[in-house]
UniProtKB/TrEMBL annotation:
The keyword Cell membrane applies. It is a multi-pass membrane protein. Residues 12-206 form the ABC transmembrane type-1 domain. Its main location: membrane. It comes from Anaerosolibacter carboniphilus. InterPro entries: AA_ABC_Transporter_Permease (IPR051322), MetI-like (IPR000515), MetI-like_sf (IPR035906). Signal peptide: none annotated. This is D-methionine transport system permease protein. Keywords: Cell membrane, Membrane, Transmembrane, Transmembrane helix, Transport. The chain crosses the membrane at residues 12-38, 80-104, 116-138, 145-167, 187-206. GO terms for biological process: D-methionine transmembrane transport. One of its GO terms (cellular component) is plasma membrane. Belongs to the binding-protein-dependent transport system permease family. CysTW subfamily. SUPFAM superfamilies: MetI-like.
């Protein structure tokens, strides 16, 4: 039992490091992309068909790549950024690239739920596009965005387990090295159980935050 815990704890830490670091960069880069997707749509506050169509195409193209293929495809870029393609830090690069387009679409969906009447009222009061984005769109969509972050976080967690298959570290790597190659079923089961618990905790916390924000 002790040896199992000693195996799980470092791998769990590696997974949490990968997942939450990736989430941070995903939000920083994906949120602006989602906002641009919404505001550049036809009849929105900054309509621009060229920007919208190009950005939408790039996002759809990136989302269509399976994560394993994406990891292999961007190996030169990963090596350029972190100097290696093996380990938890290296795995963050493909995790972020895979999660950004997903989160951008989630942000787009959440912002589209904002009542257009509220936006029209802001325009009538002379608000600039930036003011509308900062003071109307984002605050009004906070509950939906919180749920979007939750879904994205769970998605990244799933990607991180796959990253372990190709040397990304974390729980996925532990499951492959011990559960698969060494036929230690108890390690595989323990890894699956930890992942299930993590997903449940993330979902419960995300739902609670979204509920609190919705009441406001």
């Amino acid at each position: 039992m002790n040896s199992l815990i000693e195996l799980l704890l470092p791998s769990l830490w590696d997974t949490l490091y990968m997942v939450f670091t990736s989430l941070l960069f995903t939000i920083l880069l994906g949120l602006p992309l989602g906002i641009v997707l919404v505001v550049t749509e036809k009849d929105h506050i900054l309509p621009n068909s060229i920007v919208y169509n190009v950005l939408s195409y790039v996002i759809n193209m990136t989302r269509s790549l399976p994560f394993i293929i994406l990891m292999i495809f961007i190996i030169p870029f990963t090596r350029l950024i972190v100097g290696t393609t093996i380990g938890t830090t290296a795995a963050i690069i493909p995790l972020v690239i895979a999660a950004i387009p997903f989160f951008a679409r989630v942000v787009e969906s959440g912002l589209k739920e904002v009542d257009w009447g509220v936006i029209e009222a802001s325009i009538a009061m002379g608000a600039t596009p930036l003011q509308i984005i900062v003071h109307v769109l984002i605050p009004e969509a906070m509950s939906s965005l919180a749920l979007g972050v939750t879904i994205t976080l769970i998605n990244i967690l799933g990607y991180s387990a796959m990253a372990g298959v190709v040397g990304g570290g974390g729980l996925g790597d532990l499951a492959v090295r011990y559960g698969y190659h060494r036929f230690q079923t108890e390690v595989m089961l323990a890894t699956v159980l930890v992942l299930i618990v993590l997903v449940q905790i993330i979902q419960l916390c995300g739902n609670k935050v979204a509920e609190i924000l919705n009441k406001k």
